[in-house]
Amino acid sequence: MFFSSLRNRVKNQAAEVEARIARLEKADKAVSDKRTALHNQLVASYHKAKRERADFARELEAAKVVAARVPQLEADLRAARAQCAESEKAAQAATVRARENEGELARLRRLESDHLAQLEAAKQVGRKEVEDL
């Protein structure tokens, strides 16, 4: 009997140890699976960050190219504004000359009508003189 109780106690202890080992193996597998999942997530995040960094680098280079053109565009804008101002001055001067020419044309038309009236009067005087003769 002594040996049978000893044997039963050893069997129970062995069963407890096997249960603990199974629990530890299960926990080890869960930890290993979790570590693998986290590692895969980390690798995916790393590659995503690397792609985003490359995209940002390309965008930065494109922005630098555009930024390099800004001084030239500003200079072109200043030149265009100066040319526009000159054109406006020329247009104003042309408007003034056109008004002066319109005034001169009106004066010449009046002069022409006066001359035509004088010519007509002179013709009538000439006709009267011819008729009187």
The largest sheet, given as strand count, sense and whether it forms a barrel, is: none
Total domain units: 1
Question: How many runs of DSSP E, i.e. beta strands?
Answer: 0
Our count of helices gives 1
Provide an overview of this structure.
Keywords: Coiled coil. Residues 7-34, 70-97 form a coiled coil. The chain has one domain. It has one helix spanning 2-132. The protein is rod-shaped. It is mainly alpha-helical and 133 residues long. It has one helix and no strands.
What's the gist of this structure?
The chain is an all-alpha fold.
Give the helices and strands, then pairings.
Elements: H1 2-132
Keywords: Coiled coil
Coiled coil: 7-34, 70-97
Features:
133 residues; 1 helix; 98% helix; rod-shaped; coiled coil
